[in-house]
Amino acid sequence: MDATTKINIPESPHERIVIVGGGFGGLQLARKLSRDDYQVVLIDKNNYHQFQPLFYQVAMAGLEPSSIVFPFRKLFQGKKNIYIRVTEVVSVEPDKKTVQTPLGFCNYDHLIIATGADTNYFGNENIEKYALPMKSVAEALYLRNNILDDYEDALTTPDYEPRQELVDIVIVGGGPTGVELAGSLAEMKKHVLPKDYPELNIEEEVDIYLVQAGGCVLKGFSDDSSAKALRYLEELGVKVLLNSRVTDFDGHHVLLKDGSSIPSQKVIWAAGVKGSPVPGLPATSITYGNRLAVDRFHRVKETEDVYAIGDVAYMEEPGWQKGHPQVAQVAIQNGANLARNFRNRIREKDLIPFAYNDKGSMATVGRGRAVVDIPKPKFQFGGFLAWLLWLVVHLFAILGTRNKLFVFINWVINYINYDQSLRLIIKPKIK
């Protein structure tokens, strides 16, 4: 459709709020406004919300994709002021107060950018071409297929070097995603692969590498939690390469900054993210990390009636002079605060500046192994208790009773025998 076509949304006497992105921040905002005197239009390229913290479990065949997604339309059933359009915003025209999509344009009174973050390859075209990201359920499922495909191919590859490329896996980035992936892969190597692929010499040939540019894993966690996570990974047999950096990848060999290389066809890229703003906003509003500079009320710099929340927003506040971490809790609190301020506008009350309540950080490194940092009071702990807390927090955060139940059942089965029957290679039919 051309730029003159208008998206079919009923006119309303209420102001229209257009939310671009149904992640943690956008969804929280829409839910909070579902009973207020606004018309809310939620635009997302998918018709479901994705629970990003558990993508790695889909990739490692621990959960089915359907267990960590929830349809928007089911969530907003009966909410007459909520309109959902499955498409993507290709540009915004702030002077006309419209957004352009493949379906046509949509007017707004208030625009909220909640598009999240995308994978940052730091300008390396080869890595972008060959490495495997994990920023969506589709990418997690693709990674699962890729891993299982390569182990199947390894069974019919007699030569050692080509077989090593198929069975060895390199994870780049020692943050929570990289650490959780490495731990999960190491447990798969120990408990699952020997049973599924007895013809392969799993113990001798399969290696899991975690490459981290800094001198510790879980940067941003306490020193104690970082050291615990490293110890857990090494106990599981992960080869952790600290103070190392991947400089290139040709699809067969991973080149490191010291000149050495690792034979592997699978590089999982978890080394960084960058904001994903919508084209059309002023260039001066884009700042560090390709994020949108916002004030304490979430308003995008040098715009009117345009806001940004979540990973795409860069806000400075006392104690967070370098911006907030790009984690779910920030996005959720952003969405809740912005919704409160929209309600205050209607009631002619004062707007409330955002203040981040840091509830802590956690990461799991396999069954019975996790680390938790609690800032107030300052406290760190790890091991089995931290792992149980990680399970409870993530279970309650998943949308939908059915999803909670299915995830819980899968976790129980995995705890008992490490052997869910989810290792299926599912590919779309190609005509």
Question: Could you give a short description of this structure?
Answer:
By secondary structure, the chain is of the alpha/beta class.
Number of alpha- plus pi-helical segments:
13
Average pLDDT rating: 92
Approximately how much beta-strand content do the residues carry?
15-25%
Rg for CA atoms: 23 Å
| Major sheet details | 5 strands, parallel
Mass-distribution shape: globular
Question: Given the helix and strand composition, which structural class is it?
Answer: alpha/beta
Helix proportion: 25-40%
Provide a descriptive summary of the structure in words.
The protein is built from 13 helices and 25 strands. It has 431 residues and is α/β, with parallel strands linked by helices. The protein folds into 2 domains: 16-119 and 274-346, FAD/NAD(P)-binding domain (3-Layer(bba) Sandwich); 125-271, FAD/NAD(P)-binding domain, CATH 3.50.50. Strands 5-2-1-9-21 form a 5-stranded parallel β-sheet, covered by helices on one side. A hairpin with a 3-residue loop joins strand 19 (286-287) and strand 20. Helix 1 packs parallel to helix 11 (328-346) and helix 5 (137-154) runs antiparallel to helix 6.
Helix-strand layout with pairing:
Elements: E1 16-20, H1 24-32, E2 39-44, E3 48-50, H2 55-59, E4 69-71, H3 72-75, E5 82-86, E6 91-93, E7 98-101, E8 104-107, E9 110-113, E10 117-119, H4 125-130, H5 137-154, H6 160-167, E11 169-172, H7 176-191, H8 193-196, H9 202-205, E12 208-211, H10 223-235, E13 239-241, E14 246-249, E15 253-256, E16 261-263, E17 266-269, E18 273-275, E19 286-287, E20 291-294, E21 306-308, E22 313-315, H11 328-346, E23 361-364, E24 370-374, E25 379-382, H12 384-397, H13 401-417
Parallel strand pairs: 1-2, 1-9, 2-5, 9-21, 11-12, 11-17, 12-13, 20-22
Antiparallel strand pairs: 3-4, 6-7, 7-8, 10-18, 14-15, 15-16, 19-20, 23-24, 24-25
